[in-house]
Structure formats: C-alpha cells, structure tokens
C-alpha cells in the first residue's frame, strides 16, 4: 500500500529534484554489521549495569542483594497494564464519589416547607390585586386622623363639585380596603347626594 | 523456596526481554540508521544514534509490552536522539557533506564527473533543506521515507495529521523558492 504522503508530492520539476535527493538519502543502505555492533554494545551495557549492581552489593554485603530480592515487588502484582490502571482509577473514583454522596445524604437537614403566598382574590369579583404589593394584615388600612375641620353645612349649589365633598369624608374603618372603587363616584350620584346631604357616605 | 522461584522467574523475564530487544535490533536497526543519517549525514554519528536508541530501550525495557507500534515508537526515539545530537554538534562545513554524499550515494553507472556533479546537486538540495524552518524541515525529511505515512509521521513528531500536510505543503513551496534562488545565483 502506497503511503498517503506520496500523493502530496506533485510532479513538478522543482519538487522532483529535491524529492529525488531526499528519497535517495532515505533509501541509503545501512552499513554492514551494524546489527552485531549494536547487539555487542547492548550486551556491554547490560554487563556494566550488572557489575554496578554487583559492586554495590559487595560493598554492603551479600545479604543486601537477597533482601533487595525479597523486597522487590512481584511482577504479577504490579499494575503494569493499562487496563488494570484504568480499572483501579475508576474504582477509586467510585469509592470517593459514593462516600461523598452517603455523607451528604446523612448530613443534609430537612428543610421546612416554604410558605406559599396565594394571591388574594377579590371578594366581589372586581379588579384583582395582581401587580400590587401584598401587605400584611397588620393594619386595617390607613388610619386617618379624624377630621379636625368641622364641615359646616353648606349651601349646596348645583355647581358644587361633589368630589370635593366626598374627599372630606373620613374613610370607613374596620374593613379591608376593597377594590379601588371607593373614591370614585359617579358625578350624577354625587350631585344628587350633595343636593340632599352635605356629606355623602362612602359607598361600599 | 519462594526466593529461589522468584529468582528463576526474574531470570526468565530478563531473558525474554533481552530476546525481544535482540529481535528489535535485527528488525529495525537499518531503518533507524537511515532516519538518523537523513538528519546527521554522517555514518559514524548515525550509528551512534542507533546505539543510543537501543540503550534507551534497554533502560526502559519493561515498557516494551505496552507499545502498540514498535517501529514508529523506535523511530520517534531515534528522531529525538538525532535532534539532540544536532543541537549539540557544531555546524558541519558543506564540503564534508559533498564528500560524504559522493561516497555513499549509489553510482548507478555514472562516470566520476557525473557522480561529482550529482553529489554537488544533492549537496545544494540538502543545503536548501537546512535553510527551511525546523518544523517544515522535519516533516519534509520524514516524508521521504516510504515506510512512513502521514499518520505515522504525525505520531513521530507528536502533531496532527493535518499539521503534517500543511507543513509539507509549506516546505515544498519554500524549497521551490530556495532552489530557484540558488540556481539564479549560480
């Protein structure tokens, strides 16, 4: 099978010239006897390494070598293969994760249920209080100081503005503020009531 | 008893490792020599590099069993060895390269003059190769080996295959420019 890299060289004169040189260089035969020389070098290196170990052993006593052999870990027990190392790492991760989960499940306190604030529904089906801020039921509506000004009976003229008269009336107490239709009043009704009475009660 | 068995086991393992290493030497020493020579361009240095490669393998022989592609693995080791040597070595004069090339390149029925001219041409090409940036030069040299495809070159250089292709493309363009420039000067 031709290597893929061969297709990368175009058949142009320039590329073929240096291509040929590099291929000649790559195909140069190895000198004869290189294998024997390399093998001899390796044997010499092994003997040197062995002699170093032997000299070290001789210096500290022959018992050291036997001790070293005894203490040497067996090859069977070593995790030399990649799959064994992977399995060991996975087991360690599993044990750590499992232990952490057990601890967290025991320590985690029971949280109280959060109170759910239900939206207030309008009593008479009027406008809902959606969008309005919920106020606690600690107050019975804004408390207005009793009117210091005594409203003297006035001559009610048809031109009198009933809205002004209505504004002076104190707000009712004890009942939650209903949908904001309290202050609004029909002009006609206000005019009639103003003609009849100086102060019109606030409609419920 | 256990110590005696263990000693025998160790000896057997050692013998197996040495046999495996000897097999690698006989199988790949030629390839490693050619890879080393393509960079160092000196026969003695290339052989030393091959020796150094197998010495490193000897020191880490316990990892032999984990290597999937031993050929690419060995080429990668020798590649690193020759790059280290080249960094430490002084710049070789061009005349040494020409003489070496004239000696080692196949004659192919050429006359002495033709052979000298060919050696000059090869030396010119190799001189241009030396002027390339390191990354492009390395890819260009390795791509000349028929036994290495782009995936294996990427493994030797520890880069992606797409990087191999792009560097090779750049190297070709740069070489064309350098050769034209050299010829125009001559």
CATH superfamily of the domain at 1-90 in chain B: RNA polymerase sigma factor, region 2, helix turn helix motif
Mean pLDDT of chain A: 63
The level of helicity of chain A is 40-55%
By DSSP (H or I, 4+ residues per run), the number of helices of chain A equals 6
Number of helices of chain B: 8
Sum up the overall morphology of chain A in one term: elongated
Q: Any idea what the radius of gyration of chain A is?
A: 51 Å
Order of helices and strands of chain B: HHHHHHHH
Overall strand count of chain B: 0
The overall strand count of chain A is 0
Description:
The complex is a heterodimer of chains A (204) and B (186). With 204 residues, chain A is mostly helical. Chain A contains six helices and no strands. Among the domains of chain A are: 11-70, no CATH class; 157-170 and 185-204, no CATH class. Residues 1-13, 61-70 and 174-200 of chain A have low confidence and may be disordered. The termini of chain B are far apart. The longest helix of chain B has 39 residues, at 2-40. Chain B has a domain at 1-90: RNA polymerase sigma factor, region 2, helix turn helix motif (Rna Polymerase Sigma Factor, Chain: A, Orthogonal Bundle). Chain B is elongated, with a radius of gyration of 20 Å. The chains are: A mainly alpha (204), B mainly alpha (186). At the A-B interface, α1, α2 and α3 of A face α1, α2, α5, α6 and α7 of B.
